[in-house]
Amino acid sequence: MRTKVAIIGAGPAGLFLAHLMARAGIDAVVLERRTRDYVEGRVRAGVLEQGTVALMEQLGLDARLKAEGLPHTGTNLAYDGEIFRIDMAALTGAAVTVYGQQEVMRDLFDAAGPRGVQIVFEAEDLRLDGLTGNSPSVAYRKDGVAHTLACDFVAACDGFHGVGRASIPDDVLKVYERVYPFGWLGILAEVPPVNHELIYANHARGFALASMRSPTRSRYYVQVGLDERIEDWSDERFWDEVETRLGPTASAGLVRGPSFEKSIAPLRSFVAEPMRHGRLFLAGDAAHIVPPTGAKGMNLAVSDVAMLAEALALFYADRDASGLDGYSARALARVWKAERFSWWFTGLTHRFPDMDAFARRMQVAELAYIRGSRAAQTVIAENYVGLPLR
Ligand code: RFL
Ligand code: PHB
């Protein structure tokens, strides 16, 4: 089998790229290790930047997003029993939309068939060959049968543990990494959210986040140590902790209910450079990870593939490779800014094991400063709604 662009992974990066290729009339095939149900079932991101929303609109995939997505013109910070709002719309003219990654994936998968987006699920034992030559290929097995997909380019959209980045020689790749000494314990519950917008809370006991999926479905997180076990977190213990950390003002009216999803995710900052090796291009979590504090992970995957799609379209229209040559530098410029924001916001809101009384006072002083400064709030707002593509 032969195609122009072999896309590894059917997560947000892979499927947005596949839809962009279909719209540009460029042949592409997506190879995904898991089933559709598995990929769609993963509870992950919740906040779409304006650029992600705009791309869904451009692709004509925004019908449900428009009907069910929750536009948020502000976000809230809580500390020391206080809460204040950052009016993103007033400060930047932009907003974000709360719409779960699961919903985005459903929209992308539903439209794939009708638009001729080819996806091979349960493609196993994938191997990339000939990446530094002119005719790369991808070998894989499906239902026990060996296949080879010859292509012009490989787009590795295969997440942090994929084969794409692993296929780049160690002496070519430079990796930057910070592993945080804590994770997020998250739950979903069929209860109305405590507030109509998100609340990011800094508490002496650790970070908490009040988020949502809909007016009747809430998503809450609390920072936990890496040695914590899910079995030790009954719903009651979780709700008590959320209530304490949000503080009396922010948690007023908190509605508790049974959780139907509960999981712990570690936090990490990670960037691999460059995002290209020969005819292999990395996009999304395959190249970089941010801690979820800034809600940037999926949005970065989307901005990467928007840039990659532009470069591929230029190549196939005019045999002009300048976009492909510039892809890594262009994508990384935006990635590093999002890495910085996510790292900074994590530092502002989380409790670190080595934090002494002074360090805690510095966090509180910074929050108090932000509360009183339009300039500081503008910095947060413009990062949160998403920096331009450039
Ligand atoms: P994905 O989603 O990991 O998809 C990669 C796909 O590649 C497949 N794959 C392979 N296929 C074939 N052969 C192989 N050898 C393969 N290896 C892997 C996998 O099965 C998978 O289907 O990467 P992608 O597309 O780059 O998308 C990245 C996003 O999913 C991720 O950044 C976000 O979920 C991060 N994230 C958030 N992002 C936001 O923008 N806003 C948020 O509010 C937000 N909250 C979150 C998050 C991530 C979280 N967790 C659990 C990590 C909250 C959490 C708790
Ligand atoms: C979520 O709703 O899952 C969510 C929201 C904001 C974040 C991270 C996760 O920063």
Written description of the protein model:
This protein is α+β, with helices and mostly antiparallel strands. The chain has 2 domains: 5-70 and 96-177 and 268-346, FAD/NAD(P)-binding domain (3-Layer(bba) Sandwich); 180-267 and 351-385, D-Amino Acid Oxidase, Chain A, domain 2 (2-Layer Sandwich), CATH 3.30.9. It contains 12 helices and 20 strands. The protein has an 8-stranded mixed beta sheet with strand order 6-5-14-15-16-13-17-20, sandwiched between helices. Strands 8-2-1-12-19-18 form a 6-stranded mixed beta sheet. 44% of the residues are buried. The model has no long low-confidence stretch (mean pLDDT 97). The structure holds 8-demethyl-8-dimethylamino-flavin-adenine-dinucleotide and P-hydroxybenzoic acid. 8-demethyl-8-dimethylamino-flavin-adenine-dinucleotide binds at residues 8-14, 31-34, 39, 44-47, 101, 123, 126, 157-159, 162-163, 184, 186, 265, 284-286, 292, 295-299, 301.
